[in-house]
Every structure is written in structure tokens, then in C-alpha cells.
Design a protein that fits this description.
Elements lengths: L2 E6 L3 H16 L3 E2 L8 E6 L4 H20 L4 E6 H6 L2 H5 L5 E3 L7 H5 L29 E5 L1 E2 L10 H5 L3 E2 L2 H13 L4 E5 L18 H9 L6 E5 L8 H9 L6 E3 L7 H7 L5 H14 L4 E8 L6 H14 L3 E6 L17 H24 L5 E9 L7 E5 L4 E5 L7 E9 L3 E9 L3
Parallel strand pairs: 1-2, 1-3, 3-4, 4-5, 6-9, 9-10, 11-12, 12-13, 16-18
Antiparallel strand pairs: 7-8, 14-15, 14-17, 15-16, 17-18
Helix pairs in contact: 8-9, 12-13
Length: 439
Amino acid sequence: MKRYHVTTFGCQMNAHDSERIKGMLEELGLGEAPDQHEADVIVFNTCTIREKPDQRFAAHLAQAAALKQREPDKVIAVGGCYAEAQRERLFDLYPYVDVAFGPGSIPHLADWIGTGGQAPRGRFAEWRSFAGDLPARRERPFQAWVQISMGCNSKCSYCIVPSVRGREQSRRPGDIVGEVTRLASAGVREVTLLGQNVNSWGRDLLPDVRTEFGELLRAVDAIDGIERIRFTSPHPKDFRVPVIEAMAECAAVCEHAHLPLQSGSTRILKAMRRTYGRQRYLKLVDEMRAGIPDLALTTDIIVGFPGETEADFHETLEVVKEVGFDSAFTFVFSPRHGTEAATMPDQVSEDVKRERIERLVDVVQRSARLRNAERVGRTEEVLVEGPSRTDPSVLRGRTRRNTTVNFSGGGVPGDLVHVHIERATSTTLSGREVALVAV
């Protein structure tokens, strides 16, 4: 049996795409190999949002090239956003790559590789299609990602996503509900709805289909067997009242929202083309917390955007303190070729970026630690995911608010259990199981 190995970089959308790639290759009769050395087909699903994933990908690809030099029959396939950004140039940069494909071309990968492993070079599909109908090889049988859209219509000056994933294309509601229904029948208890901007889902379907994201949440909530619904990522400009109301009223929709801030300075947000300012963001946070009890908020923040002054950065710190995020993904600005921000004047030095992100992380961790400390003494509903990464004798799971919990107990992966919280850090809770949740 021929075998494959997939290495994934980047976001949850890429992780979901990799599940489809694995499922498709296994349907062709290939088995999964534990590493590149033992694989006949080596697949990289790439990210190009920031420089770091590019560097990691190059290191992994160099290892694959050395293996191919010793075993020329190995097939190297490069997919994802980096492949779409480079297209034919990828073969000039890395002549040992056999197949390259963009995020919308995943359904065609099986045709190109084939059961015999004969891979044509330089194949890119202009036609984009959803991978929802492809088989998936999920990490956990009780959790699933569900793609509801692809592409993005926003024009953020730092972001390359619209260039590599195209304009926004919504999946039809019946297809989404049908997939979630099948997943529920297969034992899935938690789904995460995925899109570059989930809140604007459905607008491109007008006038044929009159729907919006809040209605989609309600439709998925009505499916028997689905007990948790998450979604990522929304854009603050599109987070409207119907979505807040659906989050508050739908029993399965979790009390967690990832709400990217990017900067606390209205001046920098304008340069980023985020289409909202500091006060509008803070007003939205107030509305969400007023409408959704016990809401957890997480965010993305970029440090060192071109032209960011110390005063601008101080405004970001103030917003972080005022909102009190439960956690945050913090990034140093990384110029991406082809974006407006890459050629802006007043680029911030690397030394200043590093100093600022250290200060930001301190503030974020302080807020997260206080938020988590408030959970001590409470009993939380936890979906068991498996053993702790640091102690196999301890179980690990997540609360509805998306906080990791390490705990002692007798639950098995896929169980919903009640856990009494006894300790907290800035990133995790810990405690002991007290009961299995009746469902």
C-alpha cells in the first residue's frame, strides 16, 4: 500500500482542508504514514499570512527534497495559500515539487495524483469549489469543522487572503445543514462553522436565497445531536444584532466569540482599512456582553503596523485592559508581498516590534489570568478531548467558553462532564470531574 503524509500550516480553515485531503487520499487507497520518510506522497498545506509559516514550510520542504533525491518516485505536493500566491513560480523556486494547488483546487488533487502516483507538474485550477462533499479524516470523531464560505470581500491593507482565496463565496444553507445533519448522525457533538468572515455569510446568495448568519446558527442549533456550535472568524463590522440574539437564544451556540481587534488606535485601524474605529469596537463589545450572558471574548492583535507610534500602541494596551480579553493571538506585523501595507512608509523597526509585543503579551496574560481566576469554585461543562499533553493520567477538555481544562475523572473522549474548577492560570483551568452530563 502506498502511503501519504500531510503537514499543515496556518489557520483552522487549513486544518479542515487537510482533513479533506487525507480523506480523499485514503479513498484512493493510500494509508497514512507517521512521517515524511515513510511516505510515497508528501503533501504540504501551506499558509502565507505571515512570514513565520513561510519559513517553517521552507525548512520542511528542504527535508522532503533530500528524501526525494534518494527516492525519486516520491511525490511532493504543495497546496494552500502559499501555493496559490506563487502559482507557476513555485516550480522555479522548488523544481523538485511535482504538484501545486490552491485552496479551491483540493477536489482535483485526487485526479492529479491518481492511484499510480503519476503526478503532472504545474497544475492549478482556476475554478473554485467547496470541499464539503469530499470524505474527511477527522482527528476526533465527536468534533468537526464545517466550511460555510470561502474567500473574503474585505480590503484590509495588510492581508493577502483575498488574493489567494478569492472573493467571498457562500455555501448554500441546505448544503450546510445537510452536512451537519450527517455529522450528527455519525456521532459528532460539536461543530465549528468556518469562513474568512462568517458574519457576512449568505449575502452573495441574494436574491435567490434570503438568509443571514444568525438564521444559519438557528438552523444548525435545531439539528438533533449537535450540542455545541462554534464559529470563526467574524469581522467586527458585520457582527449585528440578529447574530447576538441567536447566540443568546440558541442552546447549542457556545458563549464564546473571537472578535479580531488588530489595533486599539482608530488612526491605525483606518490605515489597516478595518472599517471600524476604537469606539465602535468597544460599543460592540458592550452590546455583546449585555446580550450574551457569561460571554468569553478572544481576539487578534497586530503590533508594529507601519506608522504605529508609541501613542498608538498605548491605545491598544488601553483597549486590551478595558475589554479584558480571555485570550489573544498576538502578532508582529509581517509585510506580505502584494499588499498595500508592505510598501507603506514609516515601517516600524524589528527591535521596537519585539519590545512592544512583549509588553502586550504581559497585559493580555494578566487579563486572561484574572478572567480564569473568576472560574475557580464554579462547576463547568467540559467536552472531553483526550489525555493532557503533559500528564497522560489527567484528562483534557474544553468549556463552552473555549477554555482548556485539565482534570481528574473517569470520562472518555467525547463525553460531556461537569468539572469543579479548583485552580487557574492565564491559559488553563484545572479541577476534578463531579458528574457526567445527562443528554
